[in-house]
Design brief:
Layout (H helix, E strand, L loop, with lengths): L3 E3 L7 E3 L1 E4 L3 H12 L4 E5 L12 E2 L1 H9 L3 H7 L1 E3 L1 E5 L5 E6 L10 E3 L2 H14 L4 E3 L1 E9 L2 E8 L2 E7 L1 E4 L6 E8 L2 E8 L3
Parallel strand pairs: 3-4, 3-14, 4-10, 11-15
Antiparallel strand pairs: 1-2, 5-9, 6-9, 7-8, 11-12, 12-13, 15-16
Length: 197
């Protein structure tokens, strides 16, 4: 059973209770976690397609434990290179320090190293199996307070859509911002919100 809000614009279907803005690792994992608890998310991404960039490459032991609890660990273990120690080198490659992950008190005593595009692909594949797809080329244009929640206006391919959701979760990188028209106590104001991952 999934939790959502009644939406008359969707022919009696439930509107997603949470809108996730951004399809990076934070947004995708949040969607996975919400689904585990019966909450149906909707994910929008202004990019037209997934990126193929390396970006962040290391999943720390504590992150691996979180993925384990979420039932997502196996594909990451298969795809990643396991790093069991880290060396800090100085001039002429002289060793300054070495840190080992053995004995750190985590179930996984190593980092998993894989490019971010692969991390995102694993999470997307999991979501697709559960019936959730990312809506690429879609931007948030406005968020307004509504008696039933938050009324959000989206734009995609020159067409607009407005729907109501209980929550909006910003999962974009810190270098990007969403400019939106917001209504607070009936007075429109322009809001620049940095949505952190």
């Amino acid at each position: 059973m999934h939790i959502g809000l009644p939406d008359p614009t969707r022919n009696g279907a439930l509107a997603p209770a949470v809108l996730i803005v951004g399809s990076g690792p934070a947004g995708l994992f949040a969607a996975c976690a919400l689904l585990r608890h019966g909450v149906m998310p909707r994910i929008v991404e202004r990019l037209l397609a997934p990126h193929g960039e390396t970006r962040g490459t290391a999943l720390q032991p504590a992150v691996l434990e979180i993925l384990d609890r979420a039932g997502l660990i196996e594909p990451f273990l298969r795809a990643a290179v396991r790093i069991r120690q880290v060396q800090l080198l100085g001039p002429h490659l002289q060793e300054i320090a070495t840190a080992k992950f053995a004995g750190i008190g985590c179930k996984y005593e190593f980092q998993c190293s894989l490019p971010q595009w692969r991390t995102e692909a694993i999470l997307r594949e999991h979501l697709a199996r559960l019936g959730v797809k990312i809506e690429y080329g879609t931007e948030v244009r406005a968020i307004e307070e509504d008696p039933d929640g938050l009324r959000v206006m989206l734009e995609s391919g020159g067409r607009s859509e407005t729907f109501t959701t209980a929550y909006v979760l910003g999962a974009r990188t810190a270098s990007r911002a969403i400019r939106c028209r917001s209504i607070s106590r009936g007075r429109p104001t322009t809001v620049d919100t940095l949505l952190q991952t």
